[in-house]
Amino acid sequence: MPAHTPQSPETAPTKALIYCRVSSSKQATEFHGLDSQEARCRSHALHMGYEVEAVFPDDVSGAGDFMRRPGMVALLSYLDAQPDRKNYVVIFDDLKRFARDTEFHIKLRKAFRMRGAQIECLNFRLEDTPEGKFIETILAAQGELEREQNSRQVVQKMKARVMAGYWCFSPPKGYRYKKVAGHGKLLVRKEPLASIIKETLEAFACGRLESVAEVKRFLESQPAYPRDHRGEVHFERVAELLNRMLYAGYIEVPKWGMSFIPAKHEPLVSLATWQRVQERLKGPPKAPVRKDLNEDFPLRGFVCCASCNQPMTACWSKGRTKHYAYYLCDTRDCPDRRKSVRKEIIEGEFETLLASLKPSAHLFHAIYEMLRDQWNDRLARSEEMARAVAGELQRVEVKVRQLVDRVMGASTSALAEAYEARLRELHEHKAALSEKAASIGKPQATFAETYRTAFAFIANPCNLWHSPRLEDRRAVLRLVFAERLAYQRGSGYRTAQTALIFKMLGDKNMQMEEVVEPRG
Length: 520
Description:
Layout: E1 15-21, H1 25-29, H2 33-48, E2 51-58, H3 70-80, E3 88-92, H4 95-98, H5 102-114, E4 118-121, H6 130-163, E5 175-180, E6 184-189, H7 193-206, H8 212-220, H9 235-243, E7 250-253, E8 258-262, H10 271-282, E9 303-305, E10 313-318, E11 323-328, E12 340-342, H11 343-356, H12 361-380, H13 382-408, H14 413-439, H15 447-459, H16 462-465, H17 470-480, E13 485-488, E14 492-493, H18 500-505, H19 508-513
Parallel strand pairs: 1-2, 1-3, 3-4, 9-13
Antiparallel strand pairs: 5-6, 7-8, 10-11, 11-12, 13-14
Helix pairs in contact: 7-10, 13-14
């Protein structure tokens, strides 16, 4: 036990406060670092005749700053609350547990001195002599050096891990770490979050979810998706999800200047899907979906009043014995203002209109066979397409090498940044071409499996309209109709402008010809 300078009875401390610290919670739980430090400090207090009044543990490093350690902040606050602080001595195990930063070591010593508390270290004799202060400062500087060297080694190992294609930070939503032979800790899918995120990204990429607000509401409708204390998914978390390249199987760490590194883990979506998401995010903003949309009125905001061409609203009206649902126009100066139409009438006529778009079985089968022939023809020409993609890939690689040379010889920082931005775009294009080259001629599923959902929808849009999910019914409106529907009270819907596929299937000339085989 280290010797300490004897003190007079008037200034001798009688109460002890113990401070223990480890760098991580794992050291505290698995290696019992805090328990061993506390035991040594209690033994010292017993030997010196001190009464241990409180113990203040920390399981964070604080990066050298003692004010970022909750335990140290609590210790200083405890001393501030005592009427007679001169009777306290603070005991800690090692000088490195005190502060591993020269500047903060000196500040912390001053903080205790201002509070009148004495400090004692088990592995170092603290002296107020010039020689003692010099040695103490040197040891504090040594602790700072070790901390910074450890930090540098950790960053170097993490960079090497990232370059090898492994994510080495906290797993994002939809993934978890699992020890895999030959890989160490590898990201694997975490269900059901992985499937929810996959559906979200694909739905936003194809336009089924038009805006970030719709993505937010879709995620909030999923019981398994995590929310904040108010039961909401914050817009920042939504933007973070839509921008994560990790879901496409590529790693990006901007603070280290790393991007488009092929990852070893299984992606949730393809790079092409992720790129479509980015294009939609950078495109013109979409008007957010009305917050008053609900399952009661799926046509609200999509059906327009034929008299003023403004979207109709909807509401519940209370009768004598029950409530009644209505659609109505609420536009000022409209001749049909506040003239309501019962919900069952306007939605019933809509279902009749939707059912009329169902193609005949013969025409649908003919279209199906035509598209399957094109699918097979595309597979047959896969070698030619592979050569074309390989040629484009070689041209991109040449451009990359040329840009690297230009970056190295750039005369100004602005020019170098412009070259680096262009280089990033080429790397993204190169990654997309590589993914395309690997998938040419190797479809992930058969023609029937790939287009099963699409053909089922085209064959009968009413099936999706009867879905219990509001998102599905709103998707029907966007996929079937090219613009809003105009409704005239008393006469029904005006002529609807349908999407191209339904317009083609509903073309009378095409139906009469029934897709006749060409001559010769």
